[in-house]
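User: Here's a chain of 442 residues. Predict its fold as tokens.
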Amino acid sequence: MQSPAPEVNTTVPRNVVLTNFELLDVDAGELQSGCSLQVKGEQISALKKGRIDDPEAVHIDLGGRTLMPGLIDCHVHVCADAMSSNPPMLAAMGVAKAGHLLHDTLMRGFTTIRDAGGADAGYRQAVERGLFLGPRLLVSGRPISQTGGHGDSRATSDFCEVCPKGATFRLIADGVDEVRKGVREEIRRGADQIKIMASGGVASPADPIDYIQYSMDELLAAVDEATRANKYVMAHAYMADAIRRAVEAGVRSIEHGNFLDEQVARQMAERGTFLVPTLIVYRRLVSHAKQVGASELHVQKSRQVLEMGTRSLEIAKRAGVKMAFGSDLFKAPKEFQSEEFLVRAEVLSHAEVIRSATIVSAELLRLDDRIGRIREGYLADLIAVEGNPLRDFQCLQDQGKHMAFIMKGGRRIKDTLSEVGPDKVEEPKSLGENYLGWRRSR
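Assistant: Prediction complete.
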């Protein structure tokens, strides 16, 4: 006998007015005083100087805190650690861990994330249906790798040829036909974008970081298949040559890019290719190697990449490359996600870093007319922080401790300021309606 669906509380206030806050204008990189903001349903319905008088609304005084858009992380692994664990983790345990990760990520103020490989459409649906409390989620499905590439987890001593093809975390595809089929398969399974491996990586055992992967024909095939389905390709790439080839093939975003050089950076800027640096993961892999069970090879590769430090940020900034926000933390403790802000602030201004985690990331995700700014008509993804993030990023640290108010899509996820308290889980009328609603611009 099928179990009944869980009861859902649908009595969510859909008319909220926020007052007494400093508004963070992410485009200008400055604070504005004296504004009031109204949320009706999922969207910001009004933003103006002075008061908004609506006796039917729930009025919340933010106590002079800074009101800023919800944060966006474009390189998260929701379930990859569990799916690639050794020994393998039971599937139910992996899903349960993912639920906690999603919850904690949202409580750190990240209202939208892009999974960079591993999570399928089921995770996205679980969030949309209210089964998981988490950020808005875009999934890549299984990352696509060549044999012996970054996605091939076999040891050099392993002669098994079947295991990778049947792996749940990665998809091994060789040759144009297999690559096309692999992209089509992930699109069929509901991927929002496609992840390919274009160079060696840190976590894989058999490929050095400077291993340039996939032929141009294979890269072009992946981009062609994704483009015809109104999707795009994100590419894992470290070395300048690997980045250049991915850019020339039409890849939309380069993940990591630590060994970026001046020439390739200019090429990225000219073509509008995004860079998603993920610097905190290497620092925390090295410092927490024993805690997370990282192998000596894993740590050695992390140190090799870590040596480049923030150099890629400096090069990308000079060339005018659009830099989105990413933390990665694959095989590293996830609670250090917000430390990526501190690392980037070693090179970039606070306003630039905030833009990377808001408007630039929103543009990469093709949702820049819906999220990333506080404007009328945008989704009400809002966080109120104690302090000024344009001067000090400590207000974004400590697992959301300094965030008294978090709203995602008009729903108050955290509210320590009003007597009403945070909203309870609400299930959309239909999954299809919800799915198409905020993705209409894609």
